[in-house]
From TrEMBL:
It comes from Pueribacillus theae. The keyword Transmembrane applies. This is Cytoskeleton protein RodZ-like C-terminal domain-containing protein. Residues 155-179 have a biased composition (Basic and acidic residues). Signal peptide: none annotated.
Amino acid sequence: MSELGEQLKQARINKKMSLEEVQELTKIQKRYLESIEEGEFDKLPGSFYTKAFVKSYAEAVGLNYDVLLEEYGHELPKLPQTVESFPPRRSRASIPSPPSGKFLSALSGILIFLIIIGIFAVIWMVSINKNNDAGKDNIREDEQGVEVKQNENALTERETEKSVDEKSVDKESNENKQDDDGEETHAPSGDGKIELASTSGDTSNFILSETDQFHVAFSFTGDSWLKIQDGSGKTVINQGFSNGQEKTFDFSKVSDVRIRIGNTSNMKMEVNGEQIELPSGIAAQTVKIHLQK
């Protein structure tokens, strides 16, 4: 057990509070509270949320979070550092050497030889086609008399079948129309599962799991504002929006994002196609999402 977890647990015991009561106050799941007390921070949903969970726990049991952080901050996991990679330098294109005279002479001889063979092949194919056409003409004359009689019989049969087929088509079209009218279409749901992990004040923490896709879409019905940062603190966007505007982001290459919304009542937010429900009555809110890979 870590010293930080021991301090939190002892403060909870002194206040005669159970883990269930702390869970009710902080909206943090009990299994995460147990992991904090045991110092098993690797079981929390990423280092992005660790400090937020510890702060909420400390406030719930009456401890000063800043004092705890100064004394036991070394026990908490560090945020991952992003390293920018630079593209390799392009190598200078090598200039091919001109072909030699002997090679050109050999290539010319090969081309002339191929042309001669091609001419003979064309002459041979033309002569064969003439012989085949003459034989086919004789066969066609014999077959034409048989085909005329067969066509007359087939015409009578088609007229009989046509009336039957028209009735069948009308019946099938009516049935298909009824089936189409009764079918319901369902839009495909978003990939993965989005789950609310905790809520503290105007901040909601979500966990996205069972997927490698991380798409966030916004649609606005009035004036609002967005500020989005990734897990390293880099600002992705800081911009105002108005009625009718839409914006979509692909965060599949990062694990954590922090979204600050200026006016939640004038916008709709979706993660992988699933709408996110935020607490009502709070105009400006913060949404943190962790992609659990």
